[in-house]
TrEMBL record:
Family that this chain belongs to: Belongs to the major facilitator superfamily. Metabolite:H+ Symporter (MHS) family (TC 2.A.1.6) family.
Pfam families reported in the protein's UniProt record: MFS_1
Topological category with respect to the lipid bilayer: Multi-pass membrane protein
Role, per record: May be a proton symporter involved in the uptake of osmolytes such as proline and glycine betaine.
Protein name: Putative proline/betaine transporter
Top-level taxon in the UniProt lineage: Bacteria
Native species: Nonomuraea montanisoli
InterPro entries recorded: H+-coupled_symporters (IPR051084), MFS (IPR011701), MFS_dom (IPR020846), MFS_trans_sf (IPR036259), Sugar_transporter_CS (IPR005829)
Major facilitator superfamily (MFS) profile domain segment(s): 10-420
Amino acid sequence: MSTPKVPWKAVVGGSIGNLVEWYDWFVYSSFAVYFAASFFPDGDATTQLLNTAGIFAVGFFMRPVGGWLLGRYADRKGRKAALTLTVTLMSASALLIAIAPTYEAVGFFGAVVLLVARLLQGLSVGGEYAASATYLTEATPPGKRGLASSFQYVSMTAGQLVGLGLQIILQNTMSDEVLKSYGWRIPFVIGALGAAVVFYLRRNLLETEAYDEEEREVEGGTKDRGTIKALMAHKKEALLVIALTMGGTVAYYTYTTYLTKYLVNTAHLEKQTATLISFCALFVFMLIQPLAGSLSDRIGRRPLLITFGIGSLLGTVPLMTALASVDGFIGGFVLSLVGLIIITGYTSINAVVKAELFPTNIRALGVALPYAIANALFGGTAEYVALWFKSSGIESGFYWYVSGCAAVSLAVYLTMRETRDAALSRSEQKAGEAESVPIRL
């Protein structure tokens, strides 16, 4: 029996758009320290960041809408069509932020423009996650899906690294005054242009065999395909996605988008040092995703999820407490990397686990909507909750909040079924009948 090969062309095609999507999504957070005062001039630095973090969180609440609309679209029109649509929406929203007028020019109307752009980004990302996760999973043969799907977080992290790298360049070539005046607009212009390039590239992707097979077998598909009615037939799996996402998404946003602000506002490091720490830690984090994804193809998905759950439950409070008192690059880098290594047990395989839970006719919506709901409730609000605890004088309360979310997800990881050997199409089922592979059509 020949060893299955990773279809790298499909992996790159699905991932490169994801890179641009998440570059645009995360660059808002990483440059917020520079443009917060442009839209919310009143109050201290923490209050301004609270306002921009609030708009960041609002974008997450559009993700369930995007998950529903674009997940349905992916199940009814195809994964390729959905991937193309999501990157188009992201390009438009990035351009809108780039040209948003400031408070000084038009008052709070500029903040309204910022809000509308974030709502569009939320809509786009809500569908992008599922379309990308479903495409990468379906386009890869059994035995390599953990490896292939890990590139979703490779591309997500790469997008953030591009944003952080650009921030480092701008910090070293522009003064703080220039960055706060107009320099912060540059990354959003770049994001809009990058998305336009990816739109062209995604038009040349091939549709997945699982989706094409579904189209052929049921003569264009059932009328319930990609609908809430069809999803309700899989309520247990949908609730499972929400619960297993809860701890992972809070931890992820804590050690990624919020980390730079935390190092500046709490540890009182220079902005340049905090940004460099995040960049270096995320770079290593990106490199280890495929290693963990490949490991899950050998030992299963649950062992990695359980390892993350235990590590996040027991490690968050001491790690965040130690990060609050770091005084330089080395200490901040080592502690940040430890946190990112812990959450690799979740990030490297969460996409494939969710896709393996659902049948083809509802797979994109089944991944998109529950995941987006969990992100809206927990991931999108993580930064806001952290800043609220800080402004209330009980910052350590946030550390326990992250640990509590991890405890809930850990309980799910310990009781859920293993998904590694699930067949995702009829052809896979026929090929694996001799091994009694459970079918997920």
